[in-house]
Amino acid sequence: MKILIYVILVIWMIYAFLPLYWVFTTAFKPKAETQAWPPTLFPSRLTLRSFVTLFTDSSFSARPFLNSIIISLGATFLSVFLSGLAGYGFSRFRFPLRRFLLLFLILLRLLSTLIMIIPFFKIFITYGLYNTHLGLILIHGVTSAPFCTWLMFGFYESIPYELEEAALLDGCSFLRSLWHIILPLAAPGLAAVAIFSYLRAWNDFSNAIVLTSSDAIRPYTVSLYKLIQERSFVRWGLLSAASFVAVVPILIAFGIFQRHFITGLTQGALKG
Length: 272
What we know:
The protein is mainly alpha-helical and 272 residues long. The protein folds into two domains: 2-49, no CATH class; 63-271, Orthogonal Bundle (MetI-like fold). 75% of the residues lie in helices and 0% in strands. α4 (63-92) crosses α10 and α7 (133-157) runs parallel beside α13 (236-271). The two termini are 30 Å apart.
């Protein structure tokens, strides 16, 4: 039985890793080899020509990455702030419909933002949020908050309430005990929420292309799409180089914070 499980896991790992490997190797292939048939698994020779062309002979630039960083960091801060306080409230206070609201947060996670894109568009136009960094920050932060709140609720439940009782007896307020005692203990959960929110905002395409119209605001995902539209055929080397540049920083960040991310997810899920 164990052998069968390992075989299935290996097959799934190959299935998940192969597209990423293909993009990375294609970015370093010569132009002729990227369109050759049959395709090659390994580059015949490594070249950086696609990366040079990407930033010198295309509309692609560093500006979309800066936009993505601004939007993702803003959405992450908003989501961590909202879910940190809301999760604490659900965990420590008893009020009517508490369980129903927790279930409702999970149901909200099942809704795609594409369902709400038309109402969002009308709201953005009405309140001057269309084609702004703030608008995208709000939509990503708010839509990530329900799941993050549920995750933080589970993590707060794993922290003994006796620690707060002792602090309250010593004269601490709820907010002060939250800041000085609970949040330091909940750091892995906050890290998991931050990474989840950041990745969700970083990889968004549908909201960005509908709710923005200027290249000065649009993130890198829209620039990748425009890169495909520049010519009548897809330049696979160029597209792979742009994807490589976009993915590598995320892989590095996830590698650094992987331990906190996994700890936050598993501990919050087990207690939630």
